[in-house]
Amino acid sequence: MTTATTASSVPESDVALFSTESLLDPYPHYATLRGLGPAVYLTEYDMYGLFRYEHVRPALVDWERFSSAEGIAMNAPTNERMEGSVLRMDPPRQRVVRKVFDDALRPRFVRKVAGDLEQLAGRLVESLVRRGEFDGVADFARKLPVDIVLDLIGFPRDEQREEILHWALGAFNFMGPASDHQYASLPEVEALAQYLVTKATPEKLLPDSFGQIVWEAVDRGEITENEALLTMSAYACAGVDTTIAGIASTLWLLARNPDEWAEVRRDPTTVPGAFLEGLRVEAPVQFFSRVTTCDVELDQVTIPAGARVVLSYGSANRDERHYPDPDRFRVRRHPSDSVAFGFGVHTCPGRVLASMEAHALFTALAERVETIELAGEPTRVPNNITRGLESLPIRVT
Ligand code: HEM
Predict the structure, then answer these.
(1) Atom of ligand 1 nearest to the CA of 240
(2) Ligand 1 atom, smallest distance to 98 CA
(3) How far apart are CA 170 and CA 389, in angstroms?
(4) How many A from CA of 351 to the centre of ligand 1?
(5) H helix or E strand, kind and range, residue 12
(6) Which of 109, 115, 136, 363 is disulfide-compatible with 392, CB 3.0–4.6 A?
(7) Ramachandran class of 237: left when φ > 0, alpha when ψ lies in -120 to 50, beta otherwise
(8) What digits encode the pLDDT tens for the residues 283-321?
């Protein structure tokens, strides 16, 4: 049930945005919520929500009024656990911790692996073409982030590596509003925390890795040990499953839009645009939240001070007020202003790395693959924050 806006009151909705049904297909709900007004009070969760592009993007910039300092998860225990994480800070401290990421993820440094990425992507795609049918998640999207990114970050090469993906997804799910579904991820959250304490230490991390750069910042007294561990956690969580989700969703969209794939084949310079468009249509991070530091007026409605406000990246990217025909995947749209990587002070420091992996994979495909088709129904596991695929049966010629 929904209620329309009265003067200066925020419209309300009782839509269960974090139910399994909605997480599996949130887009009709987003459209309804965008239509209700500039902000919506979500009665099921006692939170406000911003769903329109014109409000989500400025709120991401406006950290003084939409603060991350009380956490960006939607339940108190997770926000407490994130104390010391760059994601749970406002400037000026955020800028200090953030510099460590920016130093490690500087394009110049990351580009050193570009040659490796191209070779790996080429070999991978050749083996997949020989097979003809494969899983677009396990066999295609997961390979480079696991082989390259976890090496770059420096996690030891042992049997626990593959588990990180599973634990990180659990950690994302645990950030949603309190519920049985959210609480069910506690074991993964604890396993990840335990892994970081025992394996993300200076002695165990691979030499010359981002992880070592983080610990050098501790030695110089720039960040604390706790901040370093939470930084490693941010790498593991924010960096790997998001990239896998973005690559798998883009492959899915290309398989469902053969004309768009033909366009990429004809002109491979469209590969970066195709990936950006994939991230716009299926944003790997659908929501995070902020807390208002004062009453905030948005187009004649007022969100009170101290309110938790969900910012929906997934809805903003599909806002018909901003993107014409927003549900359509078009490789020539080039939506470089989408909020898939966030915006403002917390904008994603890993965007260059993620994009390089995706570009290498889709360029290798464009050089070797004429047609991409679905060979079965994809499956999805609902997650409170991320949107990705669990399996994606693909056939290529
Ligand atoms: C397609 C892949 C990716 C997507 C869609 C994505 C998305 C995002 C988004 C939406 C934010 C903003 C958070 C906010 O508004 O509070 C963010 C922040 C962040 N991302 Fe990414 N990300 C991706 C890849 C990566 C990679 C590869 C890394 C690291 C190796 C990474 C590390 C981070 C970190 C550390 C932050 C927090 C920055 C801060 O709070 O200042 N991400 N990411």
Answers:
(1) 27
(2) 41
(3) 15
(4) 7
(5) strand 12-13
(6) 136
(7) alpha
(8) 999 999 999 999 999 998 999 999 999 999 999 999 999
